[in-house]
Design a protein that fits this description.
The chain is mostly helical and about 120 residues long. It is built from six helices and three strands, in the order H-H-E-H-H-E-E-H-H.
Length: about 120
């Protein structure tokens, strides 16, 4: 399987912390411009997503200790060098193995939806 090309620690990190390709793109954008403070509208425009989606994925990056916020702007920030090295590994994997990385993210999303659907009450039952 092509996901095996992705190092195990990077695969695990993606599964634990990345919920969408847009979130990965946001993380890599913040990582690529560490000196810049991004506000939600600017990031949304840059990634071609809505502001509500941008706000949610930035909030998730802060929760995963991949970004810092002063309340109005966001910037790349990790808790330690090990976490930063993982993000560097994710960036490299995304560059080298775009399809397997995006497939890993999409498969994760589909599995979460299937799990949630299993608990959805249906009128016909």
């Amino acid at each position: 399987m092509t996901e095996e090309l992705i190092p195990a620690d990077v695969r695990e990190f993606i599964v634990e912390c990345i919920n969408s390709v847009a979130q990965l793109e946001a993380l890599l954008l913040l990582r690529g411009t560490p000196e810049r403070e991004w506000d939600v509208p600017a990031l949304a425009r840059r990634l071609y997503i809505g502001e509500a989606e941008a706000q949610a994925l930035l909030r998730d990056l802060v929760a995963c200790e991949l970004a810092a916020s002063d309340g109005a702007t966001f910037r790349f920030s990790t808790r330690d060098e090990g976490h930063k090295a993982l993000v560097d590994g994710v960036a490299l994997a995304y560059k080298l193995y775009l399809v397997p990385v995006t497939r890993l993210i999409h498969d994760k999303s589909q599995n979460i939806r299937k799990f949630a659907d299993a608990f959805r009450f249906r009128k016909d039952k």
